[in-house]
Amino acid sequence: MKGKRYGGLFSMLSAFILATGLMAGPGTPPARAAGPGPETCKNCHASQVESYAASKHGTKGDARSPANAGACSTCHGDGSAHVMAGGGKGVGGIINPASKFLPSVAKNSACLTCHQGGKRIHWAGSMHAASDLSCASCHSMHKGKDKVLAKATQAEVCYTCHKEQRTQFNKPSHHPVPEGKMTCSSCHNVHGDNPKKLVKSSTNDTCYTCHMEKRGPFVHNHQPVAEDCGICHNPHGTTVPNLLKSRAPFLCQECHSSVTHSSESAGLPAGGTISRAQLGTVGRGCLNCHTNIHGGNSTVNSATSGRFRR
Amino acid sequence: MRNKFARQFRMTALAAALASCYGMALANDEEKADLAAVAAEVSQLTTPESSISVGIGNWSGNRPQQGIYDGMREGKAYGLLDMTLVKRNNESGTLFTVEGRNLGLDTHELNAEWLRQGDIGISLDYSRIQRDNPLTFTTGLQGIGTATQVISGVYSAVPASNYELPKREVSLGTTRDLTQLGLFKNLMPNLDLKISFKNEKKDGARQWGLGSAALFLTEPIDSTTRQLEALLNYAGKRLQMSGGYYGSWYDNANTLVLGRINDGLADSAPSTNPAKPTPLSLPLGNQAHQLLLNAGYAFTSTTRGTAKLSYGKATQDETLPVAFNVLPLAGSPTNLDGRIDTTLAEVGLSSRPLPKLSLVANLRYHDVQDKTPVAAYIGGAPGTTFVYNTPHSYTKKSGKLEANYRLPQQFNLIGGIEINNQDRSVPTRSTVSGAGVNTFSVPFRAKLDETTYRLQLRRSLSDTLNGSLAYLYSDRRGPGYDSTGNTIRDSINPTHIADRQRDKWRAMLDWSPTEQLSFQFALDQAQDKYGTSAARPYGLIDGSAHIYTLDVNYTMGDNWQISGWYTRDDTKAREFGVLTTTPTTTTKDSQLREVGDSFGFGLRGRPSAKLQVGANLEWVKSVSQYPQTLTGPITAGLTPLADITNKLTRLKLFGDYAVDKNSNVRIEATHERWQTDDWTWSFSTGAPFIFGDAGTDGTVVTAKPIQSVNFIGARYIYKFH
Question: Per the CB 3.0–4.6 Å rule, which of A30, B96, B547, B577 could disulfide with A257?
C-alpha cells in the first residue's frame, strides 16, 4: 500500500528525469572573461598556474570550467593592466579573492558566479556570510588538495575560528572527528542558513541521519528527546561518556529534582548493591534502571514501562 | 617550498621559452629530446598526482580509551596502507579517482569515482566506523548480542544447586559499515540531477541494563539504515533552485530482548504483570519521506531573496513486540500507528540598500505535528492508572532582522534582533477514575517565547589588526505551567521550557605585528539564569561558561613554521533539589564545575631539500567537581564524590625523506599518555564496580586508568602521474 501511495510521485519524477535526460547535453561555458591567460601568468605565478591546471578548474573537457572561460581572468579579472605594470599586489586592478583588503562580497562574487546553486543557495543569509567570511577564508584554490575538503584535515580549518569546538573534541567523549572518521560537514552545512548551520532543518533531523533508532515515535516518548538531542548531549565532546553534558544523577536532576527518589543525593556506594538509592551515580547512574531513556515500546503492565525501564 | 617552486618555475618557463622561440619543428634531435623531457615534466606538474603509501606501525600497549574509534585499540602491529589514484583526461574532462584510507585497519575506507566533469559522474564509497567500548566486562552473561540473554544466578544451598555462570572477559563494541552510491548528471545547461543512496549496516552489542533491576545486560545491535536523496539543482544567473525527495528507513532485526536471571525458577505464564523473564523493548522500524524545495533569486546585484519549503512525514507502524509471557491490555492497538508530519517554510532577504549598509531578514515557520493516535497501552484494572502514549507537537515561528553598517577606520557595527515564538501541545489528561485522574506527570507549557538581541562591533580589512566584540542577550518566557492535579513538588521541573535569561560576550582579536608573526585571541563568556519560582522551585538554577584562547603562529624563513595554542574553559552549573519533606525537609544544593586547560604546539620544517620534519604536542587536563550541600544527611551507604581529573599528553613526531622524485620514506612516532581517576565504574573504596548483590550477576567492570603507550611506524610512499 505504501508503495502505491508514492508510486505516482516516483513515476512523475522518473518521467521528468527521463525526458530531461533525453535532452541532455553538456553545459555551456560562461561568458569568456577578457585578459591574459595562464601562458602569461605563469611567468610570475608558476605554482598557482600549475595547481590550477591540475585542478577541476583547469579541466578543458568541462565546458563550464574557467579553462574555457578566460582561465585566470575568470576569478582574478582582466589582468592586462597588471601585466603591463609589471605585476604587484593589487596593481592594475588585479583581484585576489584571498586578499585581506577586499570586502567579502567582492571576494565571493567570482566564486558565486558559478557556485551559487545547490547547498549554497542560502549563503547570503548564513551566519558565515554575516561574519564577513569569504570562500577563500576556508578554501584553498591553489593547493594540491583543499584541506577543508579532506576528511582528515577539515577540522583544522574550522578550528581556526571555532576554538571552543577544538577544546571539546579533545575531551574523552567525542564524535570521531579527530580520528578522521567524521567531519564537521557531516553535520553542518556551513554554506546554509539552518539553525546552528546544520545539514538538516533541526538538530534532531540531523542526528537521525545516523541515529535513526532514536526517531520513534515511541509508545513512551521522553519529551526532551523527541524535541532536541542537544538538551542532554553536546555533540562535539564532553568528559562524560556518551557525549552527555553532565553526568548522572546531576544531568537528570536538572529536570527531575522534586521529592521522589530521582532527587536523591549523589555519592558512591562502598560495594555491590541493589539498593536503588545507592545506584543513581555509579555506573550508568539513573540509567542503571531507566535503560531505555530515549523512549520505549513496552506493553508490560508495569508503571516502570512508562519510565523507560522496559 | 622555495626550492620546489623555483624548480617548477624554471621548468615551465624554460618550456615556454623554448617552444615559443624555436618551435618544436625547428629543433634538432637533441633539442627535440630536451623539449620532450621538459614537456613531460610540465605535463606531470599540471596533472593530478597519484600515490600509494605502504607501511607498518606498532603500538606498544593497549589503549582502550584513546583507541575507541581509530581501530588500533590493542598493542600490536598494524598495516598502514593508503592510496590515491587519479587519472584525468584534460581534453575529454574525464576523471577517475580511487582513494583508500586505513586499508590495513578495521576502520578502512575505499572510494571510487568516475566523472566526466560537467556532464555525468558516478561514485561508490565504502567506509567502516568502529566504536570499541573502553571498558572490560568480566561477566557470566550469556547470549550477548542476541535477543535472549541469561544473567548469572547464585549458588543455592537449598536445594543445592549452582546457578552461577562461568565468567570471562568481554569487550563490547559496534561497527557501522556504510556503502554509498552517488550519481550526477547534467541534464541541460544549468540543470543537474544528483542522486545519493546510502546503506548503513550496524552490528555489535551495546552496554544496557535489565531495567527491572540494576543488572548487566547488552543491547543487541543489528540494524540497517537506508537513505535516498534525489535532487534537481538549477543554477541560473539570477535564479537558483534545488528540489527533490529525501527518504530514510530504519530496520531493526530485533524488537525485544528477554533478560532472564539464571535462578532455576520457571518462566511466568502470560499475564498482565509478568515477572520472568523480563521483556525489554527495542527501537522499532521507522521511515520518513520528505519533499523539499530551496530557491534563491537575485532581484538586483545587491538584493537577493531566498525561500525554503519542505514537507515530511515520518511513520512508525511496526507491530509492537509482545513477549510470550505478556498479556497486552485488552483492546489496545497492536501497533502505534505513529506519524509525525513536519512542515518548514522560510523566506529570507539580504540587501545592501546603501553602499555602507547591508540588511538580512528572515522569517521561518517550523511545524512538527505528532499525529499518532492516543490510546491506552498499559493498565486497566479498576482504579488503576492507564498509561497512554503521549504524542508531542510544537510549532516554532521565528523572525530575524540584522543590520550591518560600515563605519570609518574599517569598523562595522552590527545589530540584530531575533524573535522566536513556540506553540506547544499539552496532552489530554487521563479521565479514568482513581489514582490517575486529571493529573500530569510533567508540567507543560502551551507557549514559549524568546527574544534575542545582538550587538557587535567588528574591524576587518586591516593588514595588522582585526577583531570583533559582540554582546548577545536573550530572554525566554512563557505563561504558567499546566500541571493541574499535582503539587509542584511531585512534578518535574523541565529545564528546556523554563524561563531563562542569557548573556553572552564574545571577543576576538587577530594581530599580525609582522608578516611572520601572528596572534589570535578569543574570549567567550556566557551566563544562563533560570532562577527559582513557585512554579519551578527546583532543577537547574543557573550556569555559566568561560573560554579563553590564545593562538600564536610564527614563520621562520621559508622552511620553518611553529604554532602554539592555549585554551582554558570553565563551566559551572547550580542545581537545587529536595530529597524529603517528611519528617523534615531536606534540600540539596549542587554547584558543579569543570575546568579545562589544553595546550598545543606544532612544528613544521624542511632542514634540507629532501627532508621534512614535524612535531605536534597536545596536552589536555580537565578537572570536574561535584560538591553538594545537603540540609540533612547524605543517603545512607553513600560517600560524597571526589573530583575527577583527566589528563592526556600526546607527542607526535614525523620525518619525511624524499628518496627520489617519485618516492618518499616517512617515519612516524607517537607517545601517548592518558590518565584518569574517574570513579564512574568504581566503588568508594576504589574497587571496580560490580553489578548485582550477594552473587547475582556479579559482572565486574574495569577501566584502565593509566594508558601510557608508544607508536612507531614507517611508510614507503610512491608518487606518480
Answer: B577
Contact state of B306 with A122 under an 8 Å Cβ cutoff: yes
For residue B594, give Cα distances in angstroms to A309, B525, B541, B673. 30, 15, 17, 21
CB B462 within 8 A of CB B410: yes
From residue A81, alpha-carbon distances to A36, A37, A78, A94 in Å are 10, 13, 8, 8
Task: Give the torsion sign (CA, A174, A180, A181, A187).
Answer: positive
Question: Which secondary-structure segment (H or E) carries B522?
Answer: strand B517-529
CB B717 within 8 A of CB B45: no
Distance of CA A262 to the CA centre of its chain: 37
- Are A50 and A87 in contact by the 8 Å Cβ rule? The answer is no
pTM for this entry: 0.89
Catalogue the E-assigned strands of B157-264: 161-162, 168-170, 173-188, 191-209, 216-235, 239-252, 256-261
Contact status of B145 with chain A (Cβ, < 8 Å): no
**Cβ atoms of residues B498 and B448 within 8 Å:** no
Give the whole-angstrom CA distance, residue B690 versus residue A187.
Answer: 38
Report in angstroms the alpha-carbon separations of B26 from B131, B183, B478: 65, 48, 87
Interface test with A, best of B10, B18, B46, B634 (most A CBs within 10 A): B46
B273 band by pLDDT with thresholds 50, 70 and 90: low
Contact A80, A36 (CB under 8 A): yes
Grid coordinates belonging to B234: 538549477
Q: pLDDT tens digit string along B589-616? A: 999 999 999 999 999 999 999 999 999 9
DSSP letters, B22-74, are T-TTTS-HHHHHHHHHHHHHHHHHTS--EEEEEEEEEESS--TTTTTTTS--S
> Which tens digits make up the pLDDT trace of B338-394?
999 999 999 999 999 999 999 999 999 999 999 999 888 887 554 456 778 888 899
- Collapsing DSSP to helix, strand or coil, B4 comes out as helix
- Residues on chain A touching B701 (C-beta within 8 angstroms): 283
Q: Is the ipTM reported for this complex over the cut 0.95?
A: no
Contact criterion met (CB < 8 Å) for A54 and B576:
no
Q: Is B617 on the interface with A (CB under 8 A)?
A: no
Cα gap B610→B163, rounded to integer Å: 68
For B406, name the nearest residue in chain A, comparing CA atoms only.
A103
User: B12 and A19 in contact (C-beta within 8 Å)?
Assistant: no
End-to-end Cα separation, chain B, in angstroms:
20
Using alpha carbons only, what angle is made at residue B642 by residues B641 and B646, rounded to the nearest 5 degrees? 125
The answer to whether A288 contacts chain B (CB < 8 Å) is: yes
User: Which residue of chain A has the CA closest to B632?
Assistant: A265
- Which of A:16-35 have CB within 8 Å of B? 16-17, 20-21, 23-28
Instruction: Quote the CA–CA distance of B426 and B134 in Å, as a whole number.
Output: 42
Nearest to A213 among B250, B391, B493 (CB): B250
Nearest to B683 among A46, A209, A269 (CB): A269
Smallest Cα distance from A94 to chain B, Å: 17
Choose between B593 and B442: higher pLDDT: B593
Quick check: A25 and B414 CB within 8 A? no
- Which residues of chain B does A306 touch, with a Cβ-Cβ cutoff of 8 Å? 378, 387
Element (H, E) at B126: strand B120-132
Note whether B490 contacts A277, CB cutoff 8 Å.
no
- For A22, the grid coordinates are 533525453
Of the candidates B526, B529, B563, B528, which has an alpha carbon nearest to the alpha carbon of residue B548?
A: B526
Q: Is the CB of A263 less than 8 angstroms away from the CB of B635?
A: no
Which one, of B676, B673, B675, lies nearest residue B708 by Cα? B673
Q: Answer whether B213 sits within 8 Å of A289, measured CB to CB.
A: yes
Between CA A231 and CA A224 the distance in angstroms is 7
